[in-house]
Amino acid sequence: MAPSRSKPVTASTPRPIRKLLIANRGEIAVRIQRSCRDLGIETVAIYSDADRNALHVRFANQAVALGGNTPAESYLRGDRIIAAAKETGADAIHPGFGFLAENGEFADAVAAAGLAWVGPTAKSMEIMGDKLSSRRAMVAAKVPVVPGTTDAVDDPAAALRIAEGIGYPVMLKASAGGGGKGIRVVPSAQEMESAFSTASGEAQNAFGDGRMYLEKFLVSPRHIEIQVLGDKHGTVLHFGERECSLQRRHQKLIEEAPSPIIDEATRQRMGEAAVAAARAVNYHSAGTVEFLWSQGEFYFLEMNTRIQVEHGITEEVYGVDLISQMIRVAAGEKIDDCVGLVPRGHAIEVRLNAEDPDNGFLPSLGTVRNLRWPGGPGVRIDSGVYRGMEVTPYYDSMLAKLIAFGRDREQARRRMLRVLQELHVGGVKTSAGIALQLLQTEAFITGDYDTGFLERYVEGGREAPKREVTDDLERVAAIVAALHRQRAGARRPARSSQESSGGSNWLRAARLEQHGRSGR
User: I need a surface site. Which of 34, 85, 307, 386 has the fewest CB within 10 A?
Assistant: First the structure.
């Protein structure tokens, strides 16, 4: 993986970071703390009243209470967060993802307070945070973009004129959008007025910005993203792609690296385009350039100017700690030790969310009971969950990131099946059951799926899982039952012994978990 170099962007004398405040919560805060320990850096946690007993609070060297329960009262209070950093003697602030991670005003305020910001510049965030300005920047950098507008569309009449030129179907998108808000597919001119009104209103409510733009709707697209990393000395490089097409309403559930459909030539072209995109906005730090892939071609979608939830699978495949690299870059160091890293094996991530797939994926609230984490070769769990934790309505529903790594895709898939079979989170329902089903579908096994597959699977008749897991469970249960009979000296038929043994109960529970009915 050859680095791309140019003149230094904002090169400066390295300034060591000895204490880092993490302006986030949950599993990403714990993830950052672990990298800090490896680097010998002390950490400062912040927390709301609802998070008083959270793991990220317990793991930190120091913790500062912000008060309140809602994000507006706590994790979005930039002034109080900066004050906490100053009071505790922190050198830098890492925002994680979400909350203030892509807030340019907060990044500037951190720098103005004399603290290092572990992330890109506010200017980079400003350009890439607006869908229209980012499209214009990508066109100028000769990065492929989906056919559409580079300026805001003011009203439905203008949208109709533009759509006629692009050709239906088209997508209406919020310029300041994110998280699937303010997006509508418009199949024909008859639906334009209502779709425009609904999407614009949703965007105004969510982001305070109702501006819209149009893109050509691609047929059966795949969501492919490229991990990039740049420093303040002019080096920008990429770490291959992640496949993120298994999503519902633009919310990802399962990701894998590398993608099962991207060949080496396409990987190189996409990597070069991602580096060009990052360089076009003078990007330094870790970031993700997202593309849509359709019928052999790829198009720029957006850039996330922060660490991504799914960064862990890239770390497993490339053997790199992206959080540590972000901290080093923020301190003014070079990333030369990443040059030459080559991918190995395959990694799959499942987002474990506290939600009910059988009830429209609505959040599932309650107290976590009977927690059992999986383990064994090739397994990584990034989580902030603990037994007795209250899952509240105040924050995102993600509980953990389950990661399985293998020498190839099939080994990684089978290890993830094992992870999901062993996992148990009592007290709340989770997305584990639907993920276990998806990993056994013919579409996933062959890699032949697109961004619409999960919704079709949920809303249509669910494809029956292959027998491989059930057969394995039955074999294990039979062995358990046989051991039970041997120890008890039983002479009864195998069936009745199984019914009275722990093996039968275990098998029944495993089957229920396999089909997502265990009441997690």
Answer: 386
Closest CA to 226 of 315, 287, 295: 287
Of 306, 413, 415, 520, the catalytic one is 306
Q: What is the pTM of this model?
A: 0.82
Would you tell me which CATH number, out of the four given (3.40.50.300, 3.40.50.150, 3.40.50.360, 3.40.50.20), belongs to the domain 4-125?
3.40.50.20
SS3 content of the chain, % helix, strand, coil (to 5): 40, 25, 35
For this structure, is 306 an active site residue?
yes
Count CA atoms closer than 13 A to 366's CA, side-chain side.
Answer: 17
- Domain 222-459: top CATH class: alpha beta
User: pLDDT for 262-275, tens place per residue?
Assistant: 999 999 999 999 99
**Residue 155: Cβ within 10 Å count:** 12
Pairing of strands 362-363, 355-356: antiparallel
pLDDT at 295: 87
Given this chain, do its domains 4-125 and 222-459 carry the same CATH topology? no
Domain boundaries, the chain: 4-125, 147-216, 222-459, 468-514
Element at 26 (helix H, strand E) = helix 26-39
pLDDT of residue 345: 98
Residues 6 or more apart whose CB falls under 8 angstroms from that of 283 comprise 120, 124, 228, 230, 236, 305
> Which position has the higher pLDDT, 208 or 278?
278
Of the pLDDT bands very low, low, confident and very high (cuts 50, 70, 90), residue 467 is very low
Q: DSSP assignment, residue 498?
A: H
- Which is it for strands 92-94 and 19-22: parallel, antiparallel or unpaired? parallel
pLDDT band (50, 70, 90) for residue 13: confident
| Architecture label for domain 147-216 | 2-Layer Sandwich (3.30)
Please tell me the distance from the alpha carbon of residue 254 to that of residue 269, in angstroms, as a whole number.
Answer: 24
Confidence of residue 207 (pLDDT cuts 50, 70, 90): confident
CA distance 174 to 152: 9
For 50, 72, 322, 399, 406, the CA distances from 389, given in Å and listed in that order, are 10, 22, 28, 11, 31
Q: What is the pLDDT of residue 509?
A: 35
Say how many Å lie between the first and final Cα of the chain, rounded.
Answer: 43
Beta bridge partners of residue 382, listed in sequence order: 401
